[in-house]
Design a protein that fits this description.
By secondary structure, this protein is α/β, with parallel strands linked by helices. Helix content is 50%, strand content 13%. It contains 15 helices and 12 strands.
């Protein structure tokens, strides 16, 4: 049984070493492999069938365009549209336990739409100054049929590779089940029947079964009020709530406890009628339906890719244009006081992973020995440092953290580990901030919540940002940050 203490703990090392890459990285790699399988099936089918029928096509007087760039242009448009269609049909959601039959039907639908899109693209190319491809009826029909077969086959191989990786500890998830009565036992039996799902159930959390006892061979780790500590002690990635006969308020309180720990939350449908929130989606665990609660917009890989692209563009542009300014600031810091121009401090980022945040040094070298929290007119701040803090120019080196993937341009501001430990005990849902990357600026900061201001209020703004993210929202925050900088409206910057 996991040992549960009354204080927050760092995630302990498991007995068996985990893969070096983060779960999200493995997930992205597996999804990328699935994309390659689909592109191979589509392009292989089209090229193979065309080569087979090429003598017949050329005998009829049709040929490929003489300019190879015309073929490349068609191929790029065709593949781009194909990826959009496959993604729109939910073929890259990577749901655990999804039906193979349902997936096959989605492949048929997606390939059929891609075939229609290919015809449309080929028809429009001459209107855009290009040449159309010699796509005959035989090429179209046989490509469609072979692409479906190849797509289903390659996806089956990909699924087999994923199952093999899960047996070797990759793309697995540690799960805690809330509720040890019949609904919870049903969830456990379903997972136990399907080891290929990659779920490792750590135990039950229950208010009825004695703590330390076993239910169907699984330990009872604690009470529902101890859910946060159980999640930390077991390093859980997911919480499945399977309760019956609980009030709406009880259920929401349990969900709130799980949200504090930055884990994915699912609810067994026995309690589905209790939830009327629009931010829920239904998924399958093998043959057992579950409800995902409040998935953040950035849980979507396409949204994360958009946000990362924005981060790279903004960080690279600012660093290139602002390089002379950064150099002048570094020289000014060294001239005023002895010590390095940069200041590195450990902060807590996404998934509670620590990283070294880079800033321009704005205080004396021995500042940390003289105090912890910055206050107005702090005597530790140097003259150059006061200007940098007032204008937020001291934050510019964090663009390097952005390029390294440790931070984002927009997101919750990162805190030191000791403050995270303290705030997680005092502020409900505080740990949910760590579901996403820390930011150089954020919704709380552009609304004046920085420095010695209310952590509770900051947390509310940070959670609003996470749960309502959009690319336009990020751009809005960036623009407001720039306007505040140009107009000198850097509230509570000291």
């Amino acid at each position: 049984m996991a040992v549960i203490s009354s204080s927050p703990q760092r995630r302990a090392r498991s007995v068996k070493a985990r893969p070096a890459l983060r779960p999200r990285t493995w997930r992205a790699l597996l999804r990328f492999g699935l994309i390659l399988c689909d592109l191979l099936a589509l392009n292989g089918a089209v090229v193979g069938v065309f080569l087979y029928f090429r003598p017949t096509i050329e005998a009829a007087g049709d040929r490929l365009p003489s300019d190879p760039l015309e073929v490349v242009r068609f191929g790029l448009l065709f593949n781009l549209v194909a990826l959009v269609i496959f993604a729109a049909n939910g073929l890259y959601e990577m749901r655990r336990g999804a039906s193979r039959v349902d997936e096959a039907f989605k492949v048929v639908t997606a390939v059929s739409l891609v075939a229609v899109a290919g015809i449309v693209i080929n028809t429009l190319l001459p209107q855009l100054g290009g040449q159309d491809m010699p796509i005959t009826r035989d090429v179209l029909v046989w490509s469609w049929a072979i692409a479906i077969g190849a797509g289903v086959l390659l996806r089956g191989i990909h699924r087999g590779v994923v199952y093999w990786l899960r047996r070797h500890g990759i793309d697995t998830r540690r799960v805690v089940v809330v509720g040890a009565r019949e609904p919870g036992q049903l969830v456990w039996r379903t997972i136990r029947r399907r080891p290929s799902l990659g779920y490792h159930v750590q135990g039950f959390v229950s208010d009825t079964a004695p703590v330390g006892s076993e239910v169907e061979g699984l330990p009872v780790l604690g009470r529902t009020s101890q859910l946060g500590r159980v999640v930390r002690a077991t390093q859980a990635d997911e919480v499945i709530i399977a309760l019956s006969g609980r009030s709406t308020q009880d259920l929401l309180e349990i969900i709130s406890l799980a949200e504090d720990e930055s884990v994915e939350i699912k609810v067994y449908p026995d309690t589905f009628q209790l939830i009327t929130n629009n931010d829920i989606s239904i998924g399958d665990l093998s043959d057992l339906p579950l409800v995902s609660v409040k998935n953040a917009a950035l849980d979507n890989p396409w949204n994360r890719a958009l946000k990362r692209a924005l981060d790279l563009v903004v960080a690279t542009t600012v660093l290139l244009i602002g390089a002379p300014v950064l150099l002048l600031i570094a020289v000014a810091i060294r001239l005023e006081s002895p010590g390095p121009a940069f200041f590195l401090q450990e902060r807590v980022g996404m998934d509670q992973q620590p990283f070294w945040m880079i800033k321009f040094r704005t205080m004396r070298v021995d500042a940390e020995q003289l105090g912890a929290w910055t206050t107005p007119n702090d005597p530790r701040v140097t003259r150059v440092g006061r200007f940098l803090r007032r204008t937020s120019l001291d934050e510019l080196p964090q663009l390097i953290n952005v390029l390294l993937g440790e931070m984002s341009i927009v997101g919750p501001r990162p805190e030191q580990p000791r403050w995270v430990e303290q705030f997680s005990q005092q502020i409900p849902r505080y740990m949910r901030r760590h579901k996403e990357k820390a930011g150089l600026t954020g919704w709380a900061q552009v609304n004046g919540l920085r420095g010695d201001t209310s952590i509770e209020e900051r947390t509310r703004y940070d959670l609003y940002y996470i749960e309502n993210w959009s690319l336009l929202f990020d751009i809005k925050i960036i623009l407001r940050t720039v306007v505040n900088f140009l107009t000198g409206k850097q509230e509570n910057a000291y």
